[in-house]
Amino acid sequence: MAAVLRQDVTLGSEVAAWLWHPEGATGAVVLGHGLSAVRDQRIDAYAERFAQAGLAALLFDYRHFGASSGQPRQLLDIKRQLEDWRTAVAYARGLDGIERVGLFGSSFGGGHATEIAASDPNIGAVVLQCAMVDGLQAAMKLPPKSTAKLAKVALQDELGSRLGRKPKYVPAVGRPGELAMMTTEDAVPGFDSLTPEGSTWVNAVAARLGLWIGTYRPAKHAASITCPILVALCEQDTLVSNEALEKVAEAAPQGELVRYPIGHFEIYNGEWFERAVTRQAEFLARHLTGATPSP
Fold first, then answer.
1. Which of 91, 92, 109, 177 is 20 to 30 Å apart from 22, CA to CA?
2. How far apart are the C-alpha atoms of 194 and 187, rounded to whole Å?
3. DSSP assigned state of 2
4. Which Pfam family, just one, is annotated for this protein (predicted)?
5. What CA–CA distance (Å, rounded) separates 293 from 285?
6. Residue 23 buriedness (CB in 10 A; 0-12 / 13-18 / 19+)
7. Run of H or E including 159
8. Least confident of 110-114, 222-226, 247-251, 287-291
9. Nearest-angstrom CA–CA distance, 232 and 127
């Protein structure tokens, strides 16, 4: 199928999004990225492939990040990001011809997709990719010294925000031993592999997130997800809890688990991207339109 043209749209008054809307599409997919990540960091490649499969695809930047507005910048507020997902789902449902809407959440966005699907029985299908569905287990992967340093700055940022002060920022990704939200061996090269020249991505996040990430555990609601859900697990992932992902696939009544022998970032490019996106496009097209996409 020929490439589908991408449109710039605004959801509400603050959320910037890209829309691919093939002629005659009856199913749509809402896509959301991971912690600090923005729409030009390889997640747009998934949207393009879903559009080629005949699905409308709506990919957005969270408020405070990328092309979306919102002050202060680089603020990751879990409640607001969930609101952005709901805004995007409502927009997708209002598109001409759309009868069913599904979700594609990658990394931290996969946790959000889990949460939305558990609370919205009208979601038609979900794909979770290397998803962060248990913040406590993910936080426990950090070395204790790094956790202590991050907690100190996070507390300072949280208290400062209540006094009207500007955020204290930490890098979203750093090398092992550095103060950052993600410090695995593959974090820096992984983000480098996702980020094109001229990207709107900024390697910073308000530190207060460090206080709350451990309390965010969407996997606990997996049994409430009634629609088909495809869980893509990267077996060498050092950022998220694969045990928690396995439990999501087991607890969801229509859960399906697929394993890839790779790390967290390898699924976005090359051979493993091709393998993953082909299966995901088939899954979404089948459940959102009843069709099987052409090779």
1. 109
2. 11
3. P
4. Hydrolase_4
5. 7
6. exposed
7. helix 144-162
8. 287-291
9. 7
Tens-place pLDDT, residues 82-98: 999 999 999 999 999 99
- CB burial readout 111-148, b (16+ within 10 A) else e: bbbbbbbbebeebbbbbbbbbbbbbebbbebbeeebbe
Distance, in Å, from the CA atom of 261 to the CA atom of 112, rounded to the nearest integer, reads 24
Neighbours of 1 (CB within 10 A): 10
Confidence tier at 295 by pLDDT (50, 70, 90): very low
| Spatial CA neighbour of 278 closest among 253, 264, 258 | 258
Phi and psi based region of residue 36 (left: phi greater than 0; alpha: psi -120 to 50; beta: remaining): left
Q: pTM higher than 0.90 for the full model?
A: yes
Both tokens assigned to 11: 């959801």
Average pLDDT, the chain: 95
Place of tokens 């993953």: 276
Per the CB < 8 A criterion, the answer to whether 26 and 71 are in contact is no
Nearest CA to 212 out of 164, 149, 129, 155 is that of: 155
Question: Phi/psi of residue 178, each to 5°?
Answer: -85, 160
Distance between CA atoms of residues 24 and 47, nearest Å = 17
Integer Cα distance of 156 and 141 in angstroms: 23
Query: Hey, which residues does 241 pair with through a beta bridge?
Result: none
Distance from C-alpha of 75 to C-alpha of 55, rounded to nearest angstrom: 31
Q: How far apart are CA 191 and CA 201, in angstroms?
A: 10
Q: Give the mean pLDDT of 195-208.
A: 98
Please give the backbone phi and psi of residue 39, each rounded to the nearest 5 degrees, phi first.
-65, -20
